[in-house]
């Protein structure tokens, strides 16, 4: 079983969006039993809070539920528990490196590293644009899933 953790700053916008988009993709591909997918924050700011209403709305528009998800923080021990730890942007990467000091197994990647051109996924907490974030996350998750099929 492949274990993936998506990570962003607060675990209420981008990382839960990626978690549930990826879960939807693997479910539709008949791969449910081959993956364990979760998400977490680098910060403690939103711990225990539900998914942001904008993320919930965008997921619901696409027939994806995030019911029951509450923000949690990644722990250093999660490095050994997961095969892939996927961040949304360069700032998340920097903050994650404070928690997970060494990526000797090369598990940590930005989501858009699995797409042509790479880049960062904009934080809709600041932009207010959940449509663009969703589109980028879908592209990234498709690229990640294709990568995993080749590995």
How would you explain this protein's 3D organization?
This protein is of the alpha/beta class. It has a single domain (2-150), classed as Response regulator (Rossmann fold). The protein is 42% helix and 14% strand. The protein is built from six helices and four strands; from the N terminus they run βαβααβαβαα. Strands 2-1-3-4 form a four-stranded parallel β-sheet. α4 (90-99) links the parallel β3 and β4.
Short characterization:
The protein is an alpha/beta fold.
Write the layout of secondary structure elements.
Elements: E1 2-8, H1 14-28, E2 35-41, H2 53-61, H3 78-81, E3 84-87, H4 90-99, E4 108-110, H5 124-127, H6 130-150
Parallel strand pairs: 1-2, 1-3, 3-4
Helix pairs in contact: 1-6
CATH homologous superfamily (4th level) name: Response regulator
**In the CATH hierarchy, what is the class?**
Alpha Beta
What is the CA-CA span between the terminal residues?
13 Å
Main structural class? alpha/beta
Largest sheet: 4 strands, parallel
Uncertain runs are: none
- CATH fold annotation: Rossmann fold
Quaternary state of the chains: single chain
Main-sheet strand order equals 2-1-3-4
Mean pLDDT: 96
Order of helices and strands: EHEHHEHEHH
Helix content: 40-55%
What is the beta-strand fraction?
5-15%
Task: Give the overall silhouette.
Answer: globular
How many separate domains? Answer: 1
């Amino acid at each position: 079983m492949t274990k993936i953790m998506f990570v962003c700053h607060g675990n209420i916008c981008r990382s839960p969006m990626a978690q549930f988009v990826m879960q939807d993709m693997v479910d539709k591909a008949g791969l449910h039993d081959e993956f364990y997918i979760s998400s977490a924050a680098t910060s403690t700011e939103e711990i225990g809070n539900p998914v942001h209403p904008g993320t919930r709305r965008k997921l619901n528009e696409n027939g994806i539920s995030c019911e029951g998800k509450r923000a949690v923080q990644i722990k250093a021990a999660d490095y050994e528990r997961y095969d892939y730890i996927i961040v949304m942007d360069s700032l998340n990467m920097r903050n994650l490196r404070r928690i997970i000091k060494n990526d000797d197994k090369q598990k940590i990647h930005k989501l858009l590293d699995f797409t042509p051109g790479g880049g960062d996924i904009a934080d809709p907490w600041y932009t207010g644009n959940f449509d663009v974030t969703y589109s980028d996350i879908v592209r990234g998750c498709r690229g990640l899933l294709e990568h995993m099929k080749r590995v």
